[in-house]
Design goal:
With about 290 residues, the chain is an alpha/beta fold. It has helices spanning about 15-25, 50-55, 75-85, 100-110, 120-140, 160-170, 180-190, 200-205, 220-225, 245-250, 260-265, 270-285; strands at about 5-10, 30-35, 45, 60, 95, 115, 150-155, 175-180, 195, 210-215, 235, 255-260. It has a six-stranded parallel β-sheet with strand order 3-2-1-4-5-6, sandwiched between helices. Helix 2 (about 50-55) runs parallel beside helix 3 and helix 5 runs antiparallel to helix 12. It is elongated. The two termini are about 20 Å apart.
Length: about 290
């Protein structure tokens, strides 16, 4: 008899959560499901009707990435989150992405072990593949021209920016990188990208066909947007409110779109498998 089986609870989110419940159940684990986005029932998964029932039965709770909706949460969602926090039991294990610091502190005070999946570097690297492919797919859908030969400007050369750059380079785009980190700039040069110096940033905006932003801060304000051509597309995957002043963009006729949760849209099964692997790794480490 296996002793490494858990009673999981998988809650809400996008298709990643639906596939995650399916993967966990297929491995023989007990799985409770609540608020999944897909109505199709999964074999050997128990569907519950309340957060209280979920908390009472589960050992390991897996909430969405991000923990809070990218847009404003409904009153019902906020009520469920508060109910969940009030019902948690000592010794339970909680996973989610982008968990607010105040929520983590409350869980820890209740002796709940908390893991923020978005802080796991290995998961971020593997997830960046789906993010890069999703951004390119969005660009292909919207651009009236082939991406090959396009002048692409990537803002931020972290995990996602670097993976995206490698894809764009592979399809023969001209790829420029903006990053305030000298280490990131050195990596970009070593990878064959050209680095845009600070004093050339605004001029570079004038000639870019596509701008990809990965920096989680308001880097494209009205001033910067005034340099963007009307034919240029801006794709923004920055967390939170994003890196673009969208009100100014609409007023100026600049084409800018925020793209949260690309792994859940373009590669939900693969992304769910990555999450499952990360869960099991963290669980092994927590009992070692």
């Amino acid at each position: 008899m296996r002793t490494d089986l858990y009673q999981f609870a998988v809650v809400g989110g996008d298709l990643r959560q639906w596939y995650l419940a399916d993967i966990l159940a297929s491995k023989g684990h007990g799985v409770l499901a609540y608020g999944l986005c897909k109505d199709e029932k999964i074999e050997n998964v128990k569907y519950v009707s309340s957060v209280k029932e979920l908390i009472q039965e589960a050992e390991v709770l897996v909430y969405p990435m991000p923990f809070l909706s990218p847009n404003r949460m409904s009153g019902a969602e906020l009520k469920e989150r508060k109910e969940m926090l009030s019902c948690l039991r000592k010794g339970q294990i909680f996973f989610a992405g982008c968990i607010p610091r105040t929520v983590m502190q409350q869980m820890e005070s209740q002796k709940v072990r908390v893991f923020d999946l978005m802080e796991d570097h290995c998961l971020a690297v593997e997830n960046s593949v789906a993010t890069a492919e999703g951004m390119i797919a969005e660009a292909m859908i919207r651009s009236p021209k082939n991406l090959r030969g396009s002048r692409c400007l990537i803002l931020g050369y972290g995990v996602c920016g670097r993976m995206l750059a490698s894809y764009l380079k592979g399809i023969r785009c001209e790829v420029g990188v903006v990053d305030k980190s000298q280490t990131a700039c050195a990596c970009a040069r070593a990878d064959g990208m050209y680095v845009v110096e600070t004093d050339r940033f605004l001029q570079e905006m004038k000639t870019a066909d596509i701008i990809f932003n990965t920096i989680p801060e308001r880097i494209l304000s009205a001033k910067q947007l005034s340099y963007v051509r009307k034919s240029t597309w801006i794709f923004d995957i920055a967390s939170g409110d994003g890196g673009v002043d969208y009100a100014a963009a609409r007023k100026m006729g600049v084409q800018a779109v925020k793209l949260p949760g690309l792994p859940g849209k373009y590669a939900p099964y693969t992304s769910a498998q990555i999450i499952a692997d990360t869960l099991f790794q963290k669980l092994r480490e927590s009992v070692a």
